[in-house]
Amino acid sequence: MKRRAYNAFLAVSTLAGVFWLAGCDTVATTNPGVVKNRGIYTTVAQEGQSSDMAASDLPSSTNFTAIQIPEVVITGYGFPDGTPQPFDLQVVETAGETIVFTNSGSAAAGKVALIELPISYSGKYQARLLINDYVQDAWDFAVKRDATTPREVAAPGLTNSPASSATDAKNNIEVVVGPWGGGDIFGDYDDDLNKTLTAAVADGRKAHPDVFSEGTPGHVIIRFDMDEKGQVSSPQIIGNTLSDAFGQFFLSVLQTGSPYKPWSTVVKTVYGDHPRTMKVTFYID
Predict the structure, then answer these.
(1) What is each CA distance from 173 to 80, 109, 111, 139, 197, in whole angstroms?
(2) Residue whose C-alpha is closest to residue 280's, from 216, 226, 215
(3) Which of 62, 63, 60, 64 is nearest to 74 (CA)?
(4) Residue 137, helix vs strand vs coil
(5) Regarding the domain with residue range 5-143, which homologous superfamily does it belong to in the CATH classification?
């Protein structure tokens, strides 16, 4: 899983208390190029960006092309004594008010917090900054994705997953679990889920060889929710460049294996017991 130097400033915190909230902007902003002294916005992710950079060095952007990764910038937060200020991030697909990504972290005074967004399909979104369960600021942006979008752009940091493939002479199948919610605390869990789904696909393939007879490359993307007990709910195919039969096959694989193993005590202590929105992509090369 991809990690960058500034992740230390995004460590999930369980601190409680009264937060310093003066001067926050609670109205969604859409003006590209704006520089905020305090609030949330998006920029184009680039190598070399870090939490030590000034917000003025991270220009805002509201529209992202097929080869650009959106990155959230949170600036102007943190306690004057140097104590990091905990926050929650939500990214919502505005068309249906669907939460597609969540994360939790903390911002240090005089530094920015940076979070890359693994958004894999086109649409309009809103990034929301929450402190103490209240929205402090919001930012609207749009993303374009198409069939030519590189996988490392559509799902940054997911291409090096250690659990990968089930192969035969015709096709290579790769299963990639996407952390749409929960952050790095779920790293080990997602790796285990990846392995479980890869094995399930291999077994299902033997039982349904007719589905794989066409040998056409492509992918199926499924978004779903998972609760603390490992129970999958509300699965939805949100991308399919293969046949309907493939889509239903991979959907069945995901649902049949549920419930998966429950979350650990550490995960529940840090993340909580609310459901997590996730995605899994099944690639056939």
Answers:
(1) 51, 45, 42, 37, 11
(2) 226
(3) 60
(4) strand
(5) Immunoglobulins (2.60.40.10)
Query: Do the beta carbons of residue 33 and residue 63 sit within 8 Å?
Result: no
Give CA–CA dist 256/102, Å, rounded.
26
Q: Backbone dihedral region of 133: left (phi > 0), alpha (psi from -120 to 50 degrees) or beta?
A: left
Task: Kindly list the domain boundaries of the chain, sorted by start residue.
Answer: 5-143, 161-284
pLDDT at 57: 86
Exposed / middle / buried, residue 56 (Cβ in 10 Å: 0-12, 13-18, 19+): exposed
Q: 19-68, pLDDT tens digit by residue?
A: 333 334 444 445 556 678 899 999 998 888 888 888 788 889 999 988 88
| Alpha-carbon torsion (101, 102, 106, 108), positive or negative | positive
Which pLDDT belongs to residue 82? 84
Give the other-Cβ count within 10 Å of 168's Cβ. Answer: 12
Rounded to 5 degrees, what angle do the CA atoms 174, 102, 284 make? Answer: 10
Q: Encode pLDDT of 181-201 as tens digits.
A: 455 678 788 888 888 998 898
Q: What are 156's two structure tokens?
A: 């940054």
Domain 161-284 -> CATH class: alpha beta
